[in-house]
C-alpha cells in the first residue's frame, strides 16, 4: 500500500471517529452488533470454515498444475465441461460467500478462466443442497425449486457474461499462463485427488448443520459428521506425510499463509462494518430492520431491487438466510423479493466484495456485483408474477 493510501485511510478513520455521535442509541446498538457479529464469526466460521479453505487453496496453488486447471477451467476449455464443473460445485461445498473466496482465488491464480472462475464463485455458496432442501421445507416447495433452478442458471449466465465483457483482458491473461512450461510432478493423479478429497470431506462434514426434520437421511449424516470429518482429516495428514516431501509441504504452508494474509484483514473488516450497519438476525443495528421489511413488500421493481441490493451487502452464514427470510415473509415480504434475496444474499456480502476486489480489481468486482443484483431483481419480478 502506498503512503498516499495509508494517509487517506488514517484521515478516513479520524473523520469517522471524530464525528461519531457516541451517545446516540442507534450508533451504540450498531457498535454492539459489530462486536457481536465479529465474535460469532470468529467462533463459528474461522476454525472449521476459513482455515480448511485456506489449506485447500494453498494445495491448489502448489499441487494442482496450471495445465490441469486450464484444461478443465481455462478459457480454451470446452465450455460445457468448464461451466458444468463450476456450476455444480456448490452441491458439494456447503460454504458461505466468505469461505469460498480462498478456493476461488486458488483456481483463478492457477489459470482458470474468468468465466468458469466467477461461475464457481457464485455457485459455491448459492447451490447448496442442504440450503435448497431447507428452503423448500420451511419457505415452500415453489420457492425451493425456484432457488435451485435460478442459482444453477445464474452461475452459468454470470460466468458467460463476465467472460464476454472482459474478453480482451482475459485473452491476454490466458496467454501469460500458456507461456509457462509444462509442470512435471512425477506423482500419479489419483494421489493428488485423494489428498485434495480428504480436505474437501473435512470442510464439508465439519460444517454440516443440524437438520430441521427428525429421523431423516440428513439427520443420520449429521450424527456421523465428526466421524466423516475425522476420516477426511486423517486422509489429509497421512497422504501429506507419506506422498509429499518436506519442501512440498513447506510450499503448501507458505501458500496457505499467503492466502490468509490476503483475505483475513479484509474479511474481518467487512464483518465489522456489516454488523455495525445491519446487525445479526433478530438484533437491531444502525439501520432498523423494520425499514428493510417495509421496502420489500409486494412485487414491484423497487422492492425486488431493494431485496437484491440488501442481500448483496448483508452477511449470511450458511443456512441462516432461511430463518431470516421466514421472519421477513412474516413481516409482509413478497415472494418475488424473497427469491431475489435468496439468489443475491448467500453469494455476496460486503466482506466478500472487499476480498473479490483485491483479487479481480474494482472494475471486474463492480461488474460481478451488478450482474448478481440485476439478475436477482429480474428473477424476483418474474417469480413474483408467476407465484401471485
Features:
388 residues, mainly alpha, 77% helix, 0% strand, globular
Describe the 3D structure:
With 388 residues, this protein is an all-alpha fold. The chain has one domain. Helices cover 77% and strands 0% of the residues. It contains 19 helices and no strands. It has helices at 3-18, 25-63, 66-73, 79-87, 100-109, 114-126, 129-139, 141-165, 167-178, 189-206, 217-223, 225-243, 246-278, 289-295, 301-313, 321-330, 335-344, 350-360, 362-387. The longest helix has 39 residues, at 25-63. The model has no long low-confidence stretch (mean pLDDT 80).
Please trace the helix and strand order, writing H or E for each element. HHHHHHHHHHHHHHHHHHH
Q: Which consecutive residue ranges, at least 5 long each, have pLDDT under 50?
A: none
The geometry reads as: globular
Average pLDDT figure: 80
Write the layout of secondary structure elements.
Layout: H1 3-18, H2 25-63, H3 66-73, H4 79-87, H5 100-109, H6 114-126, H7 129-139, H8 141-165, H9 167-178, H10 189-206, H11 217-223, H12 225-243, H13 246-278, H14 289-295, H15 301-313, H16 321-330, H17 335-344, H18 350-360, H19 362-387
Précis, in short:
The chain is an all-alpha fold.
Amino acid at each position: 500500500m502506498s503512503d498516499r493510501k495509508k494517509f487517506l485511510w488514517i484521515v478516513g478513520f479520524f473523520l469517522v471517529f471524530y464525528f461519531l455521535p457516541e451517545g446516540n442509541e442507534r450508533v451504540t446498538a450498531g457498535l454492539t452488533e459489530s462486536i457481536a457479529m465479529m465474535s460469532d464469526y470468529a467462533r463459528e466460521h474461522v476454525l472449521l470454515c476459513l482455515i480448511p479453505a485456506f489449506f485447500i487453496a494453498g494445495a491448489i496453488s502448489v499441487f494442482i498444475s496450471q495445465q490441469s486447471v486450464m484444461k478443465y477451467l481455462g478459457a480454451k476449455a470446452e465450455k460445457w465441461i468448464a461451466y458444468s464443473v463450476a456450476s455444480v460445485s456448490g452441491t458439494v461445498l456447503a460454504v458461505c460467500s466468505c469461505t469460498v473466496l480462498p478456493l476461488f482465488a486458488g483456481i483463478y491464480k492457477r489459470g482458470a478462466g474468468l468465466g468458469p472462475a466467477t461461475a464457481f464463485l457464485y455457485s459455491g455458496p448459492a447451490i447448496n443442497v442442504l440450503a435448497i432442501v431447507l428452503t423448500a421445507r420451511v419457505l415452500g416447495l415453489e420457492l425451493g425449486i425456484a432457488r435451485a433452478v435460478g442459482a444453477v442458471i445464474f452461475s452459468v449466465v454470470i460466468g458467460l457474461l463476465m467472460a464476454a465483457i472482459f474478453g480482451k483482458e482475459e485473452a491476454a491473461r490466458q496467454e501469460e499462463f500458456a507461456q509457462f512450461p509444462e509442470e512435471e510432478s512425477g506423482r500419479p493423479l489419483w494421489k493428488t485427488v485423494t489428498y485434495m478429497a480428504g480436505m474437501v470431506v473435512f470442510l464439508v462434514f465439519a460444517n454440516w448443520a443440524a437438520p430441521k426434520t427428525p429421523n431423516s437421511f440428513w439427520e443420520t449424516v449429521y450424527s456421523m459428521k465428526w466421524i466423516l470429518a475425522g476420516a477426511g482429516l486423517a486422509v489429509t495428514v497421512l497422504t501429506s506425510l507419506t506422498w509429499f516431501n518436506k519442501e512440498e509441504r513447506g510450499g503448501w504452508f507458505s501458500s496457505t499463509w499467503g492466502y490468509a494474509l490476503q483475505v483475513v484483514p479484509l474479511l474481518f473488516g467487512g464483518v465489522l462494518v456489516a454488523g455495525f450497519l445491519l446487525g445479526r438476525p433478530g438484533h437491531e443495528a444502525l439501520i432498523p430492520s423494520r425499514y428493510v421489511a417495509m421496502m420489500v413488500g409486494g412485487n414491484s421493481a423497487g422492492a425486488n431491487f431493494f431485496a437484491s441490493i440488501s442481500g448483496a451487502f448483508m452477511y449470511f452464514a450458511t443456512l441462516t438466510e432461511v430463518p431470516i427470510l421466514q421472519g421477513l415473509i412474516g413481516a409482509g415480504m413478497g415472494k418475488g423479493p424473497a427469491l431475489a434475496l435468496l439468489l443475491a444474499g448467500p453469494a455476496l456480502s460486503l466482506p466478500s466484495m472487499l476480498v473479490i476486489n483485491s483479487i479481480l480489481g474494482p472494475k471486474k468486482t463492480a461488474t460481478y456485483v451488478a450482474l448478481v443484483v440485476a439478475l436477482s431483481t429480474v428473477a424476483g419480478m418474474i417469480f413474483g408474477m408467476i407465484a401471485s
